[in-house]
């Protein structure tokens, strides 16, 4: 029998029998013969590493994991074992960097045997300890502990969290229209919107209006997600045409919903203060968004980065939350924010009560008057060329 057609398997079988007989030293002899003849065989390197580890020889075990990684640098079991061995040798920092790579390559947890799941959980904890300590050190060195909550300080903190591996950097992913040169900012600074405090000052009046709509059981409350038949609905399957997430439209595709507007004069007064895009058959848009108890809005992205989205929280029970990119916030009634919805975001209401907020679109403050006019005219030309009003396409 040649090495190519079965000799290596015979060596591996002999090593396995030695291991089953609690004879790791004897198994090592077989595994060493095997890797000398077939250095590409990961199972032999991993068996050799396991034998050395069983004999409490971490240095030799580490050398065997290096042999496996020389054959396949993305070998998840070898990386996981290497990190564990480095940790046992007191090399926590090096171990954490190896664990990070292993965790990136880890298969789905449900496919792993229980000992491997425990090892992955330990690797995750070890890496998180390392990343937290690293981030704390960098923040102290950068002087963030004494910094005011300025946009600059928040950007430095985000940079540090990303370097430490504690935060993913999300990019803009507009579903339809991407305008070049606009930065990917999850939550924009309040100072960019001088009218924001005046809008917030009307919260009590707006809240009374949404409560009235609610109390009347208005038929104008429509499913927020309403895809027609024949359109892929993907993550929206549970919410499509469902009143679990509903909308009371005030401005829809650039047109006021007159009956609804008449019922909500305070809300309309607030909307008049906001710098909204005005493009025929497309924008502005504004609505009350009602999310029922124990309902989640799945991760998604919006239509265009040329406009941002404002949230004014009106009714927010405990257990509600909102994530944009790498930042999670809790709504507070009467405290508005503006965010870029072309960055992946999601929302949830884990309470026993509905949640209500006012949502509307806002021009990006980084667009000049010339750019805003150019976008508006370009989209009008798009609709004219396609002989389509653009309704439902948005901005």
Could you characterize what this model shows?
With 395 residues, the protein is α+β, with helices and mostly antiparallel strands. It has two domains: 3-133, Tetratricopeptide repeat domain (Serine Threonine Protein Phosphatase 5, Tetratricopeptide repeat), CATH 1.25.40; 190-385, Sandwich (Jelly Rolls). It is 44% helix and 15% strand. It is built from 13 helices and eleven strands. It has helices at residues 3-20, 24-37, 42-54, 58-71, 76-88, 92-105, 114-141, 151-163, 196-200, 203-215, 258-263, 265-271, 369-385, and strands spanning 221-223, 245-252, 255-256, 286-291, 295-300, 307-315, 320-324, 327-329, 337-339, 345-349, 355-363. The strands form two sheets. Strands 1, 2, 3, 4, 6, 9 and 11 form a seven-stranded antiparallel beta sheet that branches. Strands 5-10-7-8 form a four-stranded antiparallel beta sheet, with no helix packed on it. Helix 1 packs antiparallel against helix 2, helix 4 packs antiparallel against helix 5 and helix 7 runs antiparallel to helix 8. The longest helix has 28 residues, at 114-141. It is elongated. The termini are far apart. The mean pLDDT is 92.
């Amino acid at each position: 029998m040649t090495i190519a057609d079965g000799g290596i398997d015979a060596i591996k079988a002999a090593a396995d029998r030695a291991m089953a007989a609690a004879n790791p030293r004897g198994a090592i002899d077989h595994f060493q013969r095997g890797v000398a003849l077939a250095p590409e065989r990961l199972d032999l390197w991993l068996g050799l590493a396991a034998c050395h580890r069983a004999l409490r020889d971490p240095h030799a075990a580490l050398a065997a994991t290096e042999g496996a990684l020389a054959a396949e640098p993305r070998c998840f079991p070898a990386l996981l074992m290497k990190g564990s061995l480095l940790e046992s040798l007191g090399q926590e920092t090096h171990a954490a960097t190896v664990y990070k790579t292993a965790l990136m390559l880890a298969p789905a947890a449900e496919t792993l045997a229980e000992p491997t799941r425990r090892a992955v959980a330990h690797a995750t904890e070890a890496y998180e300890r390392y990343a937290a300590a690293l981030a704390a050190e960098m923040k102290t060195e950068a002087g963030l502990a004494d910094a005011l909550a300025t946009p600059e300080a928040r950007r430095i903190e985000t940079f540090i969290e990303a370097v430490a591996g504690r935060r993913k950097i999300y990019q803009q992913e507009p579903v339809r229209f991407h305008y070049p040169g606009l930065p990917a900012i999850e939550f924009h600074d309040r100072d960019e919107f001088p009218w924001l405090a005046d809008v917030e000052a009307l919260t009590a009046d707006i809240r009374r209006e949404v409560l009235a709509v609610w109390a009347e059981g208005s038929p104008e409350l429509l499913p927020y997600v309403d895809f027609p038949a024949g359109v892929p609905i993907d993550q929206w399957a549970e919410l499509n045409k469902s009143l679990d997430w509903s909308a009371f439209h005030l401005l829809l595709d650039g047109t006021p919903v007159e009956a609804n507007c008449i019922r909500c004069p305070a809300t309309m007064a607030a909307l008049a203060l906001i710098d909204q895009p005005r493009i025929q058959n497309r924008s502005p848009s504004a609505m009350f968004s009602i999310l029922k108890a124990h309902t989640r809005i799945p991760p998604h992205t919006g239509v265009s980065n040329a406009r941002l989205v404002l949230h004014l929280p009106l009714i927010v029970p405990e257990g509600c939350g909102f994530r944009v990119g790498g930042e999670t916030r809790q709504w507070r009634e009467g405290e508005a924010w503006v965010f870029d919805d072309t960055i992946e975001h999601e929302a949830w209401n884990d309470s026993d009560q509905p949640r209500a907020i006012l949502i509307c679109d806002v021009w990006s403050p980084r667009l000049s008057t010339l750019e805003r006019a150019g976008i508006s005219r370009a989209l009008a030309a798009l609709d004219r060329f396609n002989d389509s009003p653009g309704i439902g396409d948005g901005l």
